[in-house]
Amino acid sequence: MGWIIRTLVLCFVVGFMLSFLHIDPASILTNSWQTVQDIVALMIDAGRWALPYILIGAVIVVPLSVIGLVLRWNRTRPPS
């Protein structure tokens, strides 16, 4: 019974996401290649939108991650 409920919830979530992205179930079945192209175009647009934010965040996150990695490596290294 739990499997059925999880499957229904997952179907609802996926259906809602597809509806939000303006992907029609009929077009998935009748025009599969165009649907794939539309999904790729959506992913490229999302990447173009997200890339500046990723680069801005990387200016702070990458150096802090490297410092943390060096500090952890230094703690786990046996004394010489």
Task: Characterize the structure shown.
The longest helix has 45 residues, at 32-76. With 80 residues, the protein is mostly helical. The radius of gyration is 22 Å and the shape is elongated. The model has no long low-confidence stretch (mean pLDDT 88). 88% of the residues lie in helices and 0% in strands.
The residue fraction in helices comes out at over 70%
> What value does the Rg take, in angstroms?
22 Å
**What is the number of E strands?**
0
* Poorly predicted residue ranges: none
Task: Determine the strand fraction and express it as a percent band.
Answer: under 5%
- Tell me the quaternary state: single chain
List keywords for this structure.
80 residues; mainly alpha; 3 helices; 88% helix; elongated
Topology diagram in text:
Elements: H1 2-20, H2 25-30, H3 32-76
Brief characterization of the structure:
With 80 residues, this protein is mainly α. The protein has 3 helices and no strands.
